[in-house]
Amino acid sequence: MRKLLFLSLCILSLLGCAAPKESKKGPELLVGVSKASINPPLGAFIAGDKQNRVFTGVLDSLYAKAVVLYDGEKALALVTVDCIGLLYPELQKVREAVALMPFDIPFSPENIVISSTHTHSGPDVVGIWGKDYSQSGRNPEYMDFLVQTISAQILEASKSLQPVSARFARASFGESWVENICGEEIDREVTSIRFVDQEEKTVASLTNFACHPTHLDAVFSEISADYLAGFYKAMEKNWGGEHLFLQGAIGGWVQPKDKADYQIALQRGRDLAETVINAHQKETPLQSDRIFFSRKTILFPVENEAWKALAAGGIFDRNIGEMVESEVTWFGIGEATFATHPGESTPFHSLETKKMMPEGPKFVLGLGQDALGYILKPSYFEDPTLPHAAYLTRTSLGKNTAETMMQAISELSQSTKK
């Protein structure tokens, strides 16, 4: 009897060991990606530095890239655009266009995030770099093309969804050539997520880092993504797939230490790619596939009279009075948390935003959803002797912009905890 009981227990134990492992619960993350060239016509006005500069050639192409993510319940579109800073009205036009498109998945146009890379070798999509302040540097036909192209990439990306797993990595970068020329703190963190298919091939990646793409600013008159051209090419060569660069908090004033020739700019982009690729040698899988998304419309006070005058004169194609409408977003992919800043915010505001985020990879997208100039500490308005204070405040909405932004971000961060 004892032998029979012993044998029965052994058989049960072996059956337990041979039982199949429980499959992963929860939604499965699907990702699709698409991109298109957005090169402006030669002769178009160049954004950045002095007015009345026009393109004479092409060094490398500019792109609008879209990644659509779907967890089985909620979808999100993340778009990067190689331009100095797409304004909020264009985001609204993209949402209107996408709302009319035939998606195969439940997709809300509200769940679109657009991040500009801020290259100073791209087209004037704002208006202030025309011949002078008597006329806008924006080309209406090009702006329509840009909205249509971005919208089409979102739809195309949604048509190529495939199952992926997501892995993240973090590193530090730019110590030798990136500085905050205002002498203040700097956020050197590189945060990256790559999405790989069932054959371990990279479908797409997201990389967040902060530095002005201004190596070529006022030195070249050709179209270029600046150092990001080197980054894109190196990432594609090593991993395949598509790669989105999410600009960080570059305000107050995160720049390359020097102007550089084109080959040096490309090499610095390749160095960034190498840093990302090396960091992923010890990558960490995201444990959750859940997508969450929240946004908040904001009315920013316009304390800078120049902004009102430029809007009244038609230089800005935007309603700007005592207040101007914009938005911030707070969203996530699993444990990865993202927040947008609608302009060139300072590293201080990036670091403060990251303090609100839970453990996991943290992304702060400067020039996300809008391009409202420099978003600064109040001290720059109170002490004009601070380095570059005169220029930075002249291109800012005003002293209260940062507080308004950070309050909205804080509210969104708290709402996700409930």
From TrEMBL:
Its cofactor is Zn(2+). The keyword Zinc applies. Keywords: Hydrolase, Lipid metabolism, Metal-binding, Signal, Sphingolipid metabolism, Zinc. GO terms for biological process: ceramide catabolic process; long-chain fatty acid biosynthetic process; sphingosine biosynthetic process. Residues 50-238 form the Neutral/alkaline non-lysosomal ceramidase N-terminal domain. Coiled coil: none annotated. Pfam families: Ceramidase_alk (PF04734). It comes from the Bacteria. Residues 1-18 form the signal peptide. It catalyses: an N-acylsphing-4-enine + H2O = sphing-4-enine + a fatty acid. InterPro entries: Ceramidase_alk, NEUT/ALK_ceramidase_N. It is an enzyme of class 3 (hydrolase). Binds 1 zinc ion per subunit. GO terms for cellular component: extracellular region; membrane. Its EC number is 3.5.1.23. Zn(2+) binds at residues 118, 212. GO terms for molecular function: metal ion binding; N-acylsphingosine amidohydrolase activity. Belongs to the neutral ceramidase family. This is Neutral ceramidase. It comes from Mariniradius saccharolyticus AK6.
